[in-house]
Amino acid sequence: MNIDNLQIQIKTFFGLEAVLAEEIKKLGGKNVEIKNRAVNCEGDLGFLYKINYSARTALKILIPVLTFKAWDESRFYDKLFAFPWDDFMTVDQTFAIDSTVYSERFKHSQFMSQKMKDAIVDYFKFHHRKRPNVDVQNPDIKFHLHIDRELVTISLDSAGDPLFKRGYRKEQGEAPINEVLASGMLQLAGWDGKGNFLDPMCGSGTLLIEAAMIAMDLPAQIFRKKFSFQNWKNYDAELFQKIKEVRINRIKEFTGKIVGYDLDSQMLNAAHLNIEAAEMEDVIEVKRQDFFESKKELFPLMMVFNPPYDERIEITDDEFYKKIGDTFKKNYPNTLAWFISSDLDAAKKVGLRPSRRIKLFNGKLECRFLQFEMYEGTKKVHKLENK
């Protein structure tokens, strides 16, 4: 592995590729290329540590170490058995494999992971007369197997646990939003920590915490205890410590307000616990409040939220989305509001034309992230006033 010029592949969610590419460029990535649900770039070992610690919309950060073509299982096994695995791990380290397979030849990802595991174990038994152990829950070294038809790519997973696991979530509701998706939505909405932020249906508080992290420029993984790269043979603890210190020195004070409403006491309790775990009790306020009976209290204000939609949480109120639109119009003048929903028919009942529609996925649900711009009076009047 050439630590001065690593080829890096960073996975993200559909629709967040451009957001991630922008983050990677700002962090110093070279030759940044947008792919489907991924961004490729180049950088040195320090850059790899930096993006693991800081990138908000990264799910996995992979370093490809072997690529070959295989037409059957025996060639697949032979190529893996011949690979120098002890360049990347010791026989005393545990390992795990996660896999993605798109192939008519190799249909079962679990079976192919097992074949790869056999090849690694057999390699060490042959060369060292000892076998490494698999640990699915907490491996020292994590490999990623990707098969696209006959093209096989083996990568080192530099993070280990997926990067949406920030370390602050202690409680969650029935349908929590993924932390990476939440941060991506906030960045798509243009939230930069200037002004005030409201999530009027905050649930367990993920959007609130991610909004505060952006506002204060906190590194995405400030609460994370470990990364897989810390078990690599070339791990430079001093370099990683220096990168963390430089990054932490950039944290800034936030002077606005970040507020969450919810009607469910259990959800508010979960939000309190998560906010406390994120050490943000002084930055985020949550309260029991019916959004439909609320009025704008913060100026200027951005609103981003994840309302319930029937596939995830049952909505008993037929007028639910209409009430969202009515509340926007009557009680939140001069506000930029965004929400995500998979219920596109219901979203039409808002009664306002969205100024932007972005396709995203919340889990497996295809959604639209919708922007609504509320003006005092008509849009035309607003434009004339600002000429």
UniProtKB/TrEMBL annotation:
Keywords: Methyltransferase, RNA-binding, Transferase. It comes from the Bacteria. It holds the Pfam family UPF0020. GO terms for molecular function: RNA binding; rRNA (guanine-N2-)-methyltransferase activity; rRNA (guanine-N7-)-methyltransferase activity. InterPro entries: DNA_methylase_N6_adenine_CS, RlmKL-like_Mtase, RlmKL-like_Mtase_CS, RlmL_1st, SAM-dependent_MTases_sf, THUMP_dom. The keyword Protein transport does not apply. Residues 47-158 form the THUMP domain. PROSITE patterns: N6_MTASE, THUMP, UPF0020. CDD domains: THUMP_AdoMetMT (cd11715). PANTHER family: RIBOSOMAL RNA LARGE SUBUNIT METHYLTRANSFERASE K/L, RIBOSOMAL RNA LARGE SUBUNIT METHYLTRANSFERASE K_L. This is Class I SAM-dependent RNA methyltransferase. It comes from Chryseobacterium manosquense.
